[in-house]
Amino acid sequence: MRNGFSHSCYEWWQMRARDFKQSWDRGQKLEEQFYELVKLRDPNARRATPKEQYKHIDFYTDFGTIDVKSKKRIGRADVDEQETIVWLEYKNVQGRDGWLVSCVDILAFERDDDFILVKRKDLLAMANRKCDLTDMVTKSSDALYKGYTRKGREDLITQVKMIDLINLNNRVWSKDGI
Predict the structure, then answer these.
(1) 69, 26 in Cβ contact below 8 A?
(2) Do 38 and 61 contact (CB within 8 A), yes or no?
(3) DSSP labels for the chain?
(4) Strand 59-61 with 132-137, pairing
């Protein structure tokens, strides 16, 4: 036993910490990549401060605030991130307002070769029409257009298809800057 944890609990905790760090590092690298694309379109753009990031804002630009979303796995056991299903966050892990109901103007979703940018309000309106959050499921693989809460968390999330975002008014920014 280490630090009051059983061996299996300690290994689980170490694995979760490693997963969090990898996710954090990947998100920071993605935001850096996106910032280079933003600067091509708005030389006056700036990164959000840590305090501003609590409001789900990553960048301030002349055309609005932006929150960048990386590709996600559908389930925790999945190995790779994918680009066909998008997770939407109504409530965060503490049960507070999630990024879908925040004050941010634009959401930028990562895909393999580009980012698709949509207005948050348009995405929220579409999600409210298509998703039945009262139909709660217990497995992430069943969360398409349904409500889902992860075990031990207070979040409320759902999934939509990437094609739903493509059908909204959007902009596509290539990762290579073209």
Answers:
(1) no
(2) yes
(3) -BTTB-HHHHHHHHHHHHHHHHHHHHHHHHHHHHHHHHHHH-TT-EEPPHHHHTTT--EEETTEEEEEE--B-SSTT-SS-BSSEEEEEEE-TTSSB-GGGSS-SEEEEE-SSEEEEEEHHHHHHHHHHH-EEEEEESSGGG-BTEEE--TT---EEEEEEHHHHHTSSEEEEETT--
(4) unpaired
What is the per-residue pLDDT for 29?
86
Give pLDDT, residue 8: 55
For 4, what's the count of Cα atoms within 13 Å in the CB-facing half-sphere? 0
Six-digit token pair at 59?
A: 């960048």
Quote the pLDDT of residue 57. 96
Mean pLDDT per 10-residue section of the chain, whose length is 178 residues: 52 54 72 94 96 94 96 70 90 95 97 96 98 96 96 94 97 90
Task: Give the type of residue at 116.
Answer: I
Tokens of 101: 């109901």
